Structure formats: structure tokens, C-alpha cells
Amino acid sequence: MSDTLVHISLREGTENEARKTESIRPNDPLSKEILRLKTELNAVLLAHNYQIPEIQDLADYVGDSLGLARQAAETDAEVIVFCGVHFMAETAKILNPDKLVLLPDRNAGCSLEESCPAAQLKAFQDANPGIYTIAYINCSADVKALSDVICTSGNAMKIVEAAPKDRNLLFVPDENLGSWVIEQSGRPMELWKGNCYAHVEFTADSILAIREKHPDAPLVAHPECTKAVRLLADEICSTEKMVDFCQSHTASAFIIATEAGMIHRLKKECPDKAFIPAPTDNCACNECKYMKMNTLEKLHACMLNKSPYVSMPKDTLDRAKLPIERMLEMST
Ligand code: 13P
Ligand code: SF4
Predict the structure, then answer these.
(1) 77 C-alpha to center of ligand 1: Å?
(2) Which sign, positive or negative, has the C-alpha torsion 44, 20, 159, 107?
(3) Which ligand does the CA of 197 lie closest to?
(4) Nearest CA to 86 among 154, 126, 140, 23?
(5) Is residue 6's pLDDT more than 50?
(6) Which of 53, 235, 307, 332 to pair with 27, CA 20 to 30 A apart?
(7) 239 CA distance to ligand 1 middle (Å)
(8) Long-range pairs for 229-236 at CB < 8 Å and ≥24 separation?
(9) Which of 105, 199, 201, 222 is the pocket-test mutation for ligand 2 (most atoms within 8 Å of CB)?
């Protein structure tokens, strides 16, 4: 058996150029056992860029929400082990109704998902007949089922630009991503009042303080950051596009305003460059408590017990599938 893992990343605009990066396969007993179970289950291990380094290093694919959805749509593995948060594993299940989709911790939620209960969205839609609903993928299956199309931070502009010109638009649930898309596209949209509790912790003051220490380092920020932070950024993009930006830029150091797990991925992809986690007012780097619920121990347990796994009513799954498939078609 080879002692390296191959990570294959498919990126927006370069979908046909699978980029391969090699990483050293972890050698500790628990990691070895996880890899043995992966073979036994005929499973694929998908991990988001915010996962702990030990999980990223074991995964078959590490990427952003869009890349992970594409991987889930294309895999021929029998079992999907999804290391991210619940809505991401749920998306994989919607795309693979007949497959077992395991996740290390059922309680790994998301503040954006919580901010948009399906009943409230339905009430808004009923009060605004004909409104075209674009849902950021960070939402529940029930919200997806009520939406016309899904988007991620990697394709939000493309999805909004392709929306019917004769309909009013509603963007749920991230007001920061939504307002960033409005600024660029010039297309007005109603914005749901939700946000990512982790990204709104970055402030203009905390960013200005770190910039003073590293005046030559470009600031790369996720669009879930507030406008005050986005205004200071040299680049605003999804986590996967951060890799492309830092690889192609001539700078040797970058300030990264997103969840701290991203630093591990960036260091791996750009070993000769330095990455400075943007501080918040309270801490030196910013972690999503939900993403960090997943541990190697829980990953091992879910594969051993084949539980927890994602399940949902067939009707929800069928209705949620259409807007996700529409997104995948529109972003190829
Ligand atoms: P990306 O799709 O850019 O990885 O973002 C996912 C997310 O949850 C950001 O907080
Ligand atoms: Fe949700 Fe924010 Fe965590 Fe991403 S970082 S999963 S948006 S709470």
C-alpha cells in the first residue's frame, strides 16, 4: 500500500484540471484503523477545509462546500463519511439517497442554518408570492426544499446573475454573503437576517491591528465577514479560492480572515508561504465550535458503528434535490 494520500481538488473554472497534492499518510494506530475501516466499508472520506489537521490529512478530498457537493455527486463509493457540519452531510445524502452517509457528530450544526427555520421562510414566501428564493447551502434540507436554487460562496455571483430577471429575489440565510453579491452584481435582493457567528467576530479594529504588524501581507477574507472587514480585504472568496489566490500571488505572507482550520490546508498547498490567522477582538485565531466537534475518535466510532448517519423524509429529500442539482448544472 502506498504511504501517501492523493487529494484531488476540482475548482470553479478549472473543473477539468484535477489538481493533485500529496500529503503524508498519518501513521498513528487510530488513523490506520480509520483507513482500514474505509477500505472495509468501501467508503470515501470527505472533509471540509475547517476540519482539524488530523482529519484533513486522512481525507480523500478536502475542499469547500461546492467542491464537496461535487465530490458527493460523483462518487461511486458505497458509503460517504462526511467530516464537516450537518448541513454538508445532509447535502451529500440528498445527492445520494441510496447511500449510507455517516458523520462523526450529529450535533455539528451551523449558526446560519439555525437562523432560518423553514416555517419562517415559508411564511415570508407566502406573504411575498412569486419571490425567487436563492439559498446559501448553509441551511437545512427543509429550507433547501423551499428554495428555487442553492448557491455556495464559490458560485454565489454566478447563481445570482443567472436568476430570472423578471422576479424579485430573496437571499437566505447569510446577510453578509448576500450583501457582498449585491455589491458586485448590482442586483437588488431581499436579505434574510442571518450570519455566521464565527466570521462576524472579525472586526475592522482587529484587522487594522494585525495589518500594522504585517503591512505587506494581503488580507484574504471570506464573504461571510462583515462589510467593515470586507472593505479592508485584498481578496474576498470561498475557502477553496483562497488556495488559488495565495498560490498565484507573489506575496510571501497572507492574513487569512476565516476559520482557523484553513491555515493547515493553505500551509500544505503553499509550503513556502506564511499564513497569519486574522485575530478577532477576543482571540488570536477564530474557530467554529461546530466544525471542531469532529475528532479522530468520533470519526472512528461512526465508521465502526455505522452511526450516526443522515436520514430525512423522502418527500423533503426529493424536493431539496432539485435546487441543488440546478446549482451544480449552473456552476459547471
Ligand atoms: P466555503 O464553502 O467557502 O468553504 O464556506 C463554508 C462555510 O461554512 C464558511 O463558514
Ligand atoms: Fe456555519 Fe460559520 Fe461554522 Fe461555517 S464557520 S459552519 S457558517 S457557523
Answers:
(1) 24
(2) positive
(3) 2
(4) 140
(5) no
(6) 307
(7) 6
(8) 229/202, 229/203, 229/204, 229/257, 230/176, 230/180, 231/204, 232/204, 232/207, 232/208, 233/257, 236/180
(9) 199
Quick: pLDDT tens for 100-121: 999 999 999 999 999 999 999 9
Q: Per-residue pLDDT tens for 214-263?
A: 999 999 999 999 999 999 999 999 999 999 999 999 999 999 999 999 99
Mutate to test the pocket of ligand 1, among 90, 151, 238, 331 (most ligand atoms within 8 A of CB): 238
What residue has cell string 423533503? 316
Helix (H) or strand (E) holding 220: strand 219-221
Going from the N-terminus, what domains does the chain have, and what CATH number goes with each?
4-109+291-311 (3.40.50.10800), 112-191 (3.40.50.10800), 199-277 (3.40.50.10800)
Three cell numbers at 148?
428555487
pLDDT at 265 over 60: yes
Q: What is the mean pLDDT of residues 151-180?
A: 98
Question: Is there an atom of ligand 1 within 6 Å of 138 CB?
Answer: yes
Ligand 2 shell residues, CB under 6 Å: 85, 110-112, 138, 196-199, 224, 259, 288, 290-291
- pLDDT given at position 24: 56
For position 331, what pLDDT does the model report?
A: 85
Task: Note the pLDDT of residue 281.
Answer: 85
pTM of the model: 0.92
